Amino acid sequence: MSPIKLLKDRILVRPKVVEDKTESGFIIPEQAKVAPSSGDVIAVGPDSVVKVGDFVMYAAGAGTDIDHDDEWFLVMRDADVYCTI
């Protein structure tokens, strides 16, 4: 992946993949899927309190979707993160 330089308190998150099936094998229709609200921190800006490698929970609908090197990421502010796990 080519480098992304984040500014101030921005973080780059790889959202957790939403499953297509339940553990018992039921297929989840697209309309019933919930947008991911957790993921791994891939890169951080210089003023961020979150660290690369942290797994974070964030506000639903937070951040801006970006497609970089054929992969989907979210860019968001530290303030959108509820907690690290």
Task: Summarize this structure as a short list of keywords or feature phrases.
85 residues, mainly beta, 10 Kd Chaperonin, Protein Cpn10, Chain O, 6-stranded antiparallel beta sheet, elongated
Structural overview:
- With 85 residues, the chain is an all-beta fold.
- It has a single domain, classed as GroES chaperonin (10 Kd Chaperonin, Protein Cpn10, Chain O, Roll), CATH 2.30.33.40.
- The chain contains no helices and six strands.
- Strands 4-5-1-2-3-6 form a six-stranded antiparallel β-sheet, with no helix packed on it.
- Strand 4 and strand 5 form a beta hairpin.
- The radius of gyration is 14 Å and the shape is elongated.
Number of strands: 6
- CATH-assigned homologous superfamily: GroES chaperonin
> Which overall shape is indicated by the principal axes computed on the Cα atoms?
elongated
Strand content: 35-45%
Label the structural class: mainly beta
CATH architecture: Roll
Q: Average pLDDT, to the nearest integer?
A: 87
Number of helices: 0
* Adjacency order of strands in the biggest sheet: 4-5-1-2-3-6
